[in-house]
Amino acid sequence: MLKKVSLLRDRVEDWQNYPISVPSIRSLEEIELNSRICFFIGENGSGKSTLIEALAVHYGFGREGGTRNFFNSSTEANQAIDPLVRALRLSFDRRTGAGFFLRAESLFNVASHIDQSDEEQAADPGVPIASFYGDKSLHIRSHGEAFFTLFELKCRRNGLFLLDEPEAALSPSRQIALLALLHDTLQTFQDAQFIISTHSPLLLGFPDAQILSFDGGRIHEIAYQDTEPVQIYRRFLNDRSGILMELFRP
Ligand SMILES: Nc1ncnc2c1ncn2[C@@H]1O[C@H](COP(=O)(O)OP(=O)(O)OP(=O)(O)O)[C@@H](O)[C@H]1O
Ligand SMILES: [Mg+2]
């Protein structure tokens, strides 16, 4: 399990520019992970994807998502993260080396790559790639269906799984189904670990998860009921007309 993430401050080359300039990253010293499921939350632009992507590249995953074996091409755009990758230290108690990086916005790219790729087949001879991914191209599934297929096939095992806003693909009932799938995966696979960035109050409800907020320019632990998604949804559902009246007041 990944136990600790540290920013080695003497390895930081440039404090002024992205990615270290993001306030939550600049103030990072050490994060201790104390649960096999950890959520990153925070306002848009607070640095969640920046840290997830840096963890993914450090661990050796494809930069745009995927496993260690595929989709690892470097472009100028996705190299922006490298100064942070070089300054991070990841401490594991047991390192499986396995896992998957799933970014909501690059599900399409991962699907394309899987359609073309025979690498997986080479790694697992006898299993045709089409049947490995459910016999049907991920491109002709809906966004949510493709997400669930990928999750079933790539995340139901031991390893480190990094998911960036998985709710982007999922209806509320599918988000609840994902809670059940996560729970079952953690029960079945003792070396499975998830780090998930989210704005979803449903996903955050996973029992005994560690929740790290990136708000206020520092990464800090926060209780479920104190998180912004939970507070805002609760207020809105409890007093929709009051909130709308306030919002639309001329
Ligand atoms: N390649 C890049 N070059 C320069 N700045 C970037 C780059 N990628 C992200 N940023 C900036 O870094 C900050 C953190 O972005 P990041 O994508 O990590 O936020 P986030 O917490 O994931 O937000 P969201 O909830 O919207 O996904 C933002 O201000 C963003 O504009
Ligand atoms: Mg993000």
TrEMBL record:
This is AAA ATPase. Its main location: membrane. Residues 34-218 form the AAA+ ATPase domain. GO terms for molecular function: ATP binding; ATP hydrolysis activity. It comes from Terriglobus saanensis (strain ATCC BAA-1853 / DSM 23119 / SP1PR4). It comes from the Bacteria. It is a peripheral membrane protein. GO terms for cellular component: plasma membrane.
